[in-house]
Design a protein that fits this description.
3 domains; Rossmann fold; three-stranded antiparallel β-sheet; flat; about 40% helix; 14 strands; alpha/beta; about 425 residues; about 15% strand; six-stranded mixed β-sheet
């Protein structure tokens, strides 16, 4: 007797921990992962810049409950987990995936079994374990910000900086001209032969001389060295608004844009506050504001030293700030401060540094995240001196202004 093999089908039960997109989760957590200390400013607690797994656990729970990470079936399952008290297990599995797929690095191996010992010393120790987002996460968050910004501008592609100058190259987009020593030997064969025939007539063999050589022209693609000066003074998180986190996101997007679309360009990052320092772009997401003043002059001095090392056609400083200059580094190294801003000594010394930028051919473009009268006056003076541009913007439109400005510089003439 022939027996038929039976296959029993069971109801499909989704597994949120295994099926959830890590990129979607990272996107939902982006504000938390890039936070700038805004949550703690009321207590003047600027912390050490480190985040714990317990913080991450709460952020993931909030993201699961508030965002559109889950479809309807998974959302119902999540609600069931909440009622059964098993939501923590799901969150632990997601943290494990984030670590395994190299989105975060943890100080010590994450062991959910040890974490489950709630109330014990082991559980408390696990809660204080520190973690950092990895370069892979930074790269994704930079790409996501850039994609969102370009999407809001209606741009589907972006490329190199066009100028009004012509140069020889592989991609022909202009009339041919006579070859000069040093040109790319991208010969216009038709024009070269026509020149030789006009000189010698229709005879064989046809002698081609140096003066007959004609080369294609293409639009000259300029290279640009940019120093991004990012204000991380206390005011960037005051007045009920976090201005620093959006500024960091824009800086990450600009970094991703340059690395992927403008490989000949360079980008350096300076944080300016009581003083100023150059910070690797890879550390940008981990930077937080502090109880600082605004030493604009020191930032400009450091930016000029960085740009002097660059051999680019164009050199510019992009300054993102929301405050008037309120600090100055004296000759003996002491920091002179005036919390009210627009101190005559501070302003005069800062404008003297702007004048040095002008003499060195460095353009200064300023993106202001505030519009108080004193700041507007100062930035207008800087703009007049350097023939740069000033943008009165908000944290929410900053990225659109900055990226469009970077990509649309078409009037630079190179001699």
């Amino acid at each position: 007797m022939l027996c038929m093999k039976r296959i029993r089908y069971s109801k499909y039960v989704p597994d949120p921990a295994g099926e959830m997109s890590m990129e979607d989760l990272l996107s939902a957590l982006s504000d938390y992962l890039l936070q700038s200390g805004f949550q703690n400013y009321l207590y003047d607690d600027f912390g050490d810049g480190e985040q714990t797994l317990d913080d991450l656990r709460r952020a993931i729970e909030q993201a699961l409950l508030d965002s559109d990470l889950l479809d309807e079936q998974m959302r119902q399952q999540l609600q069931q987990m909440q009622m059964e008290g098993t939501l923590d297990e799901l969150i632990d599995k997601l943290i494990q995936r984030m670590q395994q797929e190299d989105y975060i690095s943890i100080d010590q191996p994450h062991d959910p079994a040890r974490q489950s010992g709630a109330g014990g010393q082991v559980g408390e120790a696990q809660q204080q374990v520190k973690f950092e987002i990895t370069d892979k996460s930074l790269d994704f968050l930079g790409f996501k910000t850039l994609r969102d910004l370009m999407g809001s501008l209606g741009k589907s592609s972006f490329g190199r900086h066009d100028t009004r100058d012509m140069a020889t190259g592989i991609e022909a987009s202009g009339a041919s001209r006579q070859y000069e020593f040093g040109d790319t030997l991208n010969l216009d064969i038709t024009a070269t032969l026509s020149s030789a025939i006009q000189r010698e007539g229709m005879k064989l063999p046809l002698n081609i001389e140096y003066s007959d050589l004609q080369v294609h022209q293409c639009e000259y693609q300029s290279s640009c060295a940019t120093v991004l000066m990012l204000d991380c003074s206390h005011s960037m998180i005051l007045y009920g608004e976090d201005r620093f986190t959006p500024a960091k996101k824009v800086a990450m997007a600009l970094s991703h844009l340059i690395r992927t679309q403008y490989p000949g360009d360079s980008l350096s990052l300076i944080l300016f506050h009581d003083s100023a320092e150059e910070v690797p772009l890879s550390q940008l997401a981990r930077v937080k504001v502090g109880p600082y003043y605004t030493n604009t002059r020191e930032g400009l001095r450091l930016a000029q030293r960085i740009l002097q090392r660059q051999r680019k056609d164009m050199k510019q400083i992009v300054m993102i700030t929301d405050g008037k200059p309120s600090a100055l580094t004296l000759e003996d190294g002491r920091i002179y401060k005036n919390a009210f801003g627009l101190d005559p000594l501070v302003v005069s010394q800062t404008l003297e540094e702007v004048s040095k930028c002008k003499r060195a051919g460095v353009l200064i473009n300023t993106f202001m995240l505030a519009s108080d009268y004193g700041l507007v006056q100062f930035v207008q003076k800087v703009t007049e001196m350097c023939r740069g541009k000033a943008y009165f913007t908000t944290p929410y439109t900053l990225g659109q202004y900055l990226l469009m400005d970077y990509m649309s510089r078409k009037t630079k003439t190179i001699h």
